[in-house]
Amino acid sequence: MRKNRVLVVDDSASMRQLISAVLNAEPDLEVVGHAADPLEARQAIKDLSPDVLTLDVEMPNMSGIDFLERLMRLRPTPVIMVSSLTPRGGEITTRALEIGAVDCVTKPGLGELRPFGDLADKVRMAAGVRMQPGSPASGRGAPATASAGPAAAYAPNGRIVAIGSSTGGVEALTAVLTTLPADCAPVVVTQHMPPLFTRSFSERLDKLCLATVAEATDGAPLLPGRIYIAPGGHQHLEVTGRAGPRGAGPPRCRLREGPPVNGHCPSVDVLFRSVVKAAGGDAVGVILTGMGRDGADGLLAMRNAGAATLGQDAASSLIYGMPKVAFEIGAVDRQLPLRRIGAEIASLTNKLDRT
């Protein structure tokens, strides 16, 4: 069996040793080299041709972001970012995920029993990503910026939009949400990310989107022109109340502590199922790139309730896992490339759309 070859890039010798110990304990993974900074990493990539890199976000001689941008432009390679769980770490990691990193892990805390518990799985998954210049998985260049696009009449029709995503979702969500109008239908999003990272991601999206973007807070009313991102951590994002003409007021966000569902908290399935109760057919469900099956069953429940459901297609997905499962079980009404999903959401939520 051929092992997946990994290059570990970190300025801390102890962190390089820890990461190597975790990965070398797996029968299908092998750390073939180390680098203490991007300059050493550049030469190591030429000499060793690794399948995957683990990359520290902050290093001497060149920042991890600058190195990642050059790598994705010149030699696209799957990268797992290794970040500290701090606001600064979250900000840098969010940018890294936008420009080409496949996923991220957080550095272990003092005394943590299973340091880098999911690192091996993420490296294994990254090794299966085929990077191509200009593809959704590599070197995409600058992120999208909000654009009003062609002049068109738009007014929200009372539907709620619920979106779920995981690996590759930072870029996918950026591509979708930046195309929505300023007064778009209320949008609730569950993206699998660590705490603090979702805050950085929300703040960055708020600068890029025409609509207002923020982390969801408990009790926040779902209003047009607002996009609510589920906070990473130990709470599920749900929608409560009743949408549509029968509702007594706007539905609201609810943050509820609970065990992981499908291995995740927050879970896409939890969000989608709550939207079924709150909105029934007055909703649009969207499932984007990600590993696993979180969201598939919830999206099927949305479709069965009469909601419109969209799934990202294989060609534009970094990981065609979650959308694939949803499509195969009949949860997806229409499967579309990423570049068309934002426009489709706008059309489905526009009461002035006559098409």
Automatic annotation (TrEMBL):
Phosphorylated by CheA. Phosphorylation of the N-terminal regulatory domain activates the methylesterase activity. InterPro entries: CheB-like, CheB_C, CheY-like_superfamily, Sig_transdc_resp-reg_Me-estase, Sig_transdc_resp-reg_receiver. Keywords: Chemotaxis, Cytoplasm, Hydrolase, Phosphoprotein. One of its GO terms (molecular function) is protein-glutamine glutaminase activity. Residues 5-122 form the Response regulatory domain. PROSITE patterns: CHEB, RESPONSE_REGULATORY. The modification 4-aspartylphosphate is found at D56. Its main location: cytoplasm. It comes from the Bacteria. GO terms for biological process: chemotaxis. One of its GO terms (cellular component) is cytoplasm. Gene3D superfamilies: 3.40.50.2300, Methylesterase CheB, C-terminal domain. It catalyses: [protein]-L-glutamate 5-O-methyl ester + H2O = L-glutamyl-[protein] + methanol + H(+); L-glutaminyl-[protein] + H2O = L-glutamyl-[protein] + NH4(+). Its EC number is 3.1.1.61, 3.5.1.44. Residues 154-352 form the CheB-type methylesterase domain. The active site is at S166, H192, D294. Belongs to the CheB family. HAMAP family: CheB_chemtxs. PANTHER family: PROTEIN-GLUTAMATE METHYLESTERASE/PROTEIN-GLUTAMINE GLUTAMINASE (PTHR42872), PROTEIN-GLUTAMATE METHYLESTERASE_PROTEIN-GLUTAMINE GLUTAMINASE (PTHR42872:SF6). Contains a C-terminal catalytic domain, and an N-terminal region which modulates catalytic activity. Involved in chemotaxis. Part of a chemotaxis signal transduction system that modulates chemotaxis in response to various stimuli. Catalyzes the demethylation of specific methylglutamate residues introduced into the chemoreceptors (methyl-accepting chemotaxis proteins or MCP) by CheR. Also mediates the irreversible deamidation of specific glutamine residues to glutamic acid. This is Protein-glutamate methylesterase/protein-glutamine glutaminase.
